[in-house]
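Notes from the 1:1 (GR / supervisor)

We went over the backlog. Supervisor wanted to see one worked example end to end before approving the batch request, so GR pasted a single chain during the call. The sequence is below; no edits were made to it. Supervisor asked that the structure be written out right there so they could see what the output format looks like.
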Amino acid sequence: MDLLGQSALSHYIQRFSACNGQAIAVFGLTPDYMRGERRGFSTFEFQLEVLAPLRPGDLVRVRSALLHVGGSSMRLLHVMTREPGGERVAALEQLGVHLDMDARRSTPLPAAIREKAQAVLVQS
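Structure output shown during the call:
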């Protein structure tokens, strides 16, 4: 909480970061895969939009969607709503890459992961 009793920006970013881990695990970028294959996911661009303040005790829901799958990149959108009314309070769109942690470079997504990701891709 900040001095006004509202959620600080770091709270939104932390919550969206946690949701991102859950979202990418759906199509195979799990902690076990990342550790075992020495892979990572690095966000290199994000856009945060805060539309309404959160106060202590507010219940929130975050919904995530995969918007784009590239050779090694992915774009995700996370939308936070205040519940039970569903008022949109914040959104974060992020573009990140699949990393080889040893080479410290982006690396192509494996075919099996790409196929699973494309199956949950949101069509615009």
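Supervisor's comment: The chain has a mean pLDDT of 93.
Batch request approved.
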